[in-house]
Write a structure and sequence with these properties.
Blueprint lengths: L3 E2 L5 E2 L18 H12 L4 H8 L3 H8 L7 H11 L2 H5 L6 H34 L5 H27 L3 H23 L3 H26 L6 H14 L8 H30 L10
Antiparallel strand pairs: 1-2
Helix pairs in contact: 2-3, 6-7, 6-11, 7-8, 8-9, 9-10, 10-11
Amino acid sequence: MSYKLTTFGCIKNDYPATFDETLMTTMKQPALGKKISEIRNQKGITQKELADSCNVDIRTIQRIEAGEVIPRMSTIKLITEILEIESLKQNNLENDPGNVFISKVLLGMLIAGVIGLINWLIFVSVIVPQNNINTPAGLMFIIVYVVGGVLYNYGFYEFGKHQANKIIQITSLVSMVTIPSFYIIFFLQQSIRVLYLDRMNMLISVVNAVFFGIGLIKSKSQFTMLYRMAGILNIVISPFFLFQVRSVNIIGAWLAIPSMICILAIVYYEYRETTQPGSLIQAGI
C-alpha cells in the first residue's frame, strides 16, 4: 500500500500506524529516533518529504532519527501528526508531568535570568567603579546574585537532567555551592586560612565554569549554534577570574554580559518550545 503526502502535509492511508506501548513519553533517544525511522520507512516516506511537511531542515530529521538530539515537543507533535502515530498523539508530551514541570522550571529560569542580567549590569556599571561592595547597592547585589544564582543553577540542574546532560547537572550543582560560599568566605576573611579558602573556591568556580561551557557545547539540542556560542564564550571568559587582578577581573565582568545573554536566549527559546508547540525554529539558528 502506498502513502503520499497531500498538499497540506497529511498522509493518505487506509489504517492508522501502530506503535509499541513503550513509545510514549518514556521512550528516549536513540530508541525514539529508530522508531520514527521505522514508521517512516513503513509508510514509504523519505526524510526529505517528512522534513518538508514538518517545515524543518532535513538535517533535523536525520539527527532525530540517528538519536543525536532530543526532539522538541513541537517537532514530535508534527511528526506524530504527519505519520499518524496514534499512541503518541494520545500521550501527547504536553500532558506529560515531566514536560509540564520542565516548562515551569524554564519559566523560573527566564525570570531569574532577566533579574540576574539587570543585577549584573548594575554591578559592572555602578558598584565596580566605586570599588566598594560594602554599600547598600553592593549588599543588594550580593543578595540578588546569590539567591538568583542558586535558583538559576537549580533550573539548569533540572534542565540538564531533562536533557540527560551529566556535565550540566554536575556543574550546576557545584555552582549552587560555590556562589554562596564565595560571599560567605568574603565576609569572613579574617585569617590566612580563610583567604586560602577564598582562592580555592574561585579556582573551583573557574574550572567549573569551563566544564559548564563544555556541557553547553555538548548539549543535544536543535539550537546547536546558540549552545555552542554560549559554551565557547563561557570557556573564554572563565580565565579572567582566575587571578585577583582588578583590571583583568573588570574586563571579565564586562565580557560575561554577552555570555549571559546567550544563555538567557537558550532558556527563552527552550521555554517557548514548551508553550508554543506550533512554532518551530530550525536547527542551526
